[in-house]
Amino acid sequence: MKYSTRKFVLAFVAAAMMGMPCIAQDESHSVWKRLPDMAVPRWEAGSIVFENKLYVFGGYKMPTKACKRVDVFHPKDNSWRKLADLPSAISHMNPVLDGRTVWIAGGFKDGYKGYAISEVWRYDIDKNTYTAGPSLPEPRASGGFAIVGCKLHYTGGMYHHDSKQIDRPLVDIYDPETDSWSRGEDLPTGHTHAEAGTFVHDKRIWFLGGMAQVGEKRWIDNKITVLTSEGKWKHAGELPQPLSAAAAGILDGKLYLAGGSPNGATPQPGMWVRIA
């Protein structure tokens, strides 16, 4: 496979930045400790943190094919527990936590390189069940997904994969009151691979880096982009270097950035911080 966001690993990094105790730490707070392996190795999975537990949805397993597997990690006893399978085998999605519900939208389905889908699913954490939600207006994978107020925003995303990849600037907004999607203002460029760098702070969506595209030109992005209260996308700064698929979050007024790839193929371990 040409490219991997290593989203599962970055979810641990992002959770740690936000103060969630997902990884058992050495007393020095700087030494990694090996924990029990997942039952099924996989990557390009989606993840959320809820009540100090890490939920991992789908992703690729070997041979490179999307799977339905869902597991939850309990840091109190360092154990994994299998949950109900996803209704579809999906990778490249970005789950969003809404109360005690997890929303999952889009992604790549089945074998590598798979195909983008418009499926939307709601996972009930308490019941361990899924119900179908209103499909995305257009199939996409690897887009940003965030909730502002009560509305879900799916930003960017791509068709195809790798050599045939087409990054889209579309923004779709789901309103639960009308149970329908509407178009938001397009992103400044086609955009993808910023799932772990997409988050909400102060009721605004932020996304950092990723892959961008205008026409036939594609590049690794170095921009910080924010959705203003007027619903407009604003350039809010630059990263220390162009990075795709980095993890990011704001904690105590500081913007943290970790991991990612400067070339879409090789991950880097660096971490940075600046005033938000």
Strand order of the largest sheet: 1-2-5-6
Topology as a string of helices (H) and strands (E)? HEEEEEEEEEEEEEEEEEEEEEEEEEEEEE
CATH class: Mainly Beta
The N- to C-terminal Cα distance equals 35 Å
| CATH fold descriptor | Neuraminidase
Q: Given the helix and strand composition, which structural class is it?
A: mainly beta
Number of helices: 1
Compute the number of strand runs: 29
The domain tally reads 1
Radius of gyration: 17 Å
Mean pLDDT value:
88
Determine the CATH superfamily. Answer: Kelch-type beta propeller
Contiguous uncertain segments of 5+ residues: 1-27
Helix content: under 10%
Main beta-sheet annotation: 4 strands, antiparallel
What portion of residues belong to β-strands? 35-45%
CATH architecture verdict: 6 Propeller
Overview of this protein structure:
- By secondary structure, the chain is mainly beta.
- The chain has one domain (7-275): Neuraminidase.
- 4% of the residues lie in helices and 42% in strands.
- The chain is built from 1 helix and 29 strands.
- The chain has one helix spanning 7-17, and strands spanning 46-50, 53-57, 60-61, 65-66, 70-74, 79-82, 90-91, 96-98, 101-105, 108-109, 115-116, 120-124, 129-132, 144-148, 151-155, 158-159, 166-167, 171-175, 180-183, 190-192, 198-201, 204-208, 211-214, 217-220, 223-227, 233-238, 247-251, 254-258, 271-275.
- The strands form 9 sheets. A 4-stranded antiparallel β-sheet has the order 1-2-5-6, covered by helices on one side.
- The protein starts with 6 loop residues before the first helix and ends with a strand.
